[in-house]
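Milestone M4 deliverable, item 7.
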Amino acid sequence: MRRYITHDSYMKECMADPAEAATYLNVVLEDGDIPFLLKAIRTVAGAQGGMGKLAKAVGMSRTSLYKALSPTGNPGIHTLEAILAVYGVRLGFFPIAKGPRPSAHRSSSRQAHL
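Output delivered:
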């Protein structure tokens, strides 16, 4: 008999590890799809004790938390910070990789005219 694990079971097992959860959330965030990020946070919450436990930890009602993390939710930055802090994760900012940045110094042709 073949042994297997469902995707949901696998995700719950992986997301119970804070390091795995942080990696997962970072990968999802890189895609820039906010509704999918909110779903990913719900997945992590489910794996680490459920929405009720998370609601208590952040001092919100379950209803408010479900609304904030719904596909149409629009949680504020303070709410996201509080939720992520429960899992030992924080928000960060990184430069967008584009072509070479313009130099902060004046070009030598500008200096030649002085």
